[in-house]
Amino acid sequence: MSPFDFDLFVIGGGSGGVRAARMAAQRGARVALAEVLGIDGLGGTCVNVGCIPKKLYSYAAHYAEAAEEAHGYGWEGPAPTLNWQTLKANRAREITRLNGVYHHLLQGSGVTVINGFARLEGEHGVGVATLNADGSAGHQSFTARHVLLATGGTPHVPHFAGREHVITSDDVFDLPDFPRRLVVVGGGYIACEFASIFNGLGAHVTQLYRGEQILRGFDDEIRHFLAAEMAKAGVDLRLNAGVLAVERHSDGLLVRLEDGNTVAADAVLYATGRLPNVNGLGLETAGVAQSGQGAVQVNSHYQTNVPHIYAVGDVTARVQLTPVALGEAMVVVDHLFGPQAGKPPRAMSYEAIPTAIFTHPNVGTVGLSEADAGAQYGQVTLYRSEFRSLKHTLSGSTERTLMKLVVDTATDRVVGLHMVGADAGEIVQGFAVAMKAGATKAQFDATLGIHPTAAEEFVTMREPVKAGR
Known about the structure:
This protein has about 475 residues and is of the alpha/beta class. Helices cover about 30% and strands about 25% of the residues.
């Protein structure tokens, strides 16, 4: 008879937590998962206020572009108009459906789902603050052989005058009224995505970033190319622009900049980074080691310095992507309860992680940037193609596509692949498999392209270009 109530207690119902709970339960473990269901529902940031609703809104924005571009293909008639309330309602209905799917999957696997806020409490203990059916607060205590922290991250807004007037990516999907004038503060992928999306939906978007160029950490050529395409599409992108204060006036908000300029807005969206969601978890009491920004520190098995406590996903602040959290969760399950029959234990590699940014146009990237590849390998060979896609020869759009390969000269191995253009994420996903397998440029060259597609450019680039072009 086990001295513990559960073999695994998962705190957090996002992607990593749900995956770990389900898979552990399927291995025969007694599993509980605690999440505050009344706030967002199961699925975490990705399902509720991240990947899924963001991609849906990106699709919505593309319909406006498609309606305009259709004229070049002979379609006539007035342009459609956006009903913001309909978009919000349809999105909410789909998210509610997905919440239900996650709940059904957990219950079907035998996981005990507890609606409440959990925190570490005593040796191998977890306390859960619950809300009773009559609205009163309750408390339950459990013991677990192992505890998994999967509480994700939360948007970070710096302190400045008027901070109380701004919104974050958690709020932007459900604004009561469509913001005709939207200011987006930040230069990361979340800021760029929302700037593109709301520009496509019909807002006048001003994006402010205090750095010298958006998407710090990505390939420099990709950064500059995307910035130019976004500006061409209508985003008022202002670099080296720091915010001093945000003021509320009778006709909306006024953003005061450090250079003395001002920008009027109906809403100000701050997308200036995310922090691990650790407040109230009892980490200090349990002695769990954290980094300077609160991230939970873990080893290669995602075990903290407290042997029975593990952590995966954004709460560790390693790579904040849903597929990464899913992969980390499987490593934990295999480590604690053994791998699936006939399969080796999972291991997580952070090399060549494919990434997509759902700006307009999209960005897809896998592997190293030109600068990082040069630093790691010394000499690299670059291949590049820039063109106007076949679709836009009739659409009237001036959007251009950029595709780039970074090759380790000594081994001929493709170590970086980058694209700005329509469906970049869909295209790069397939090439990520080849790069994971160590594909060389010669193997790319020997692969026949599908004509006419944009993707074929990756296997037809023959002439190298100079570095830093």
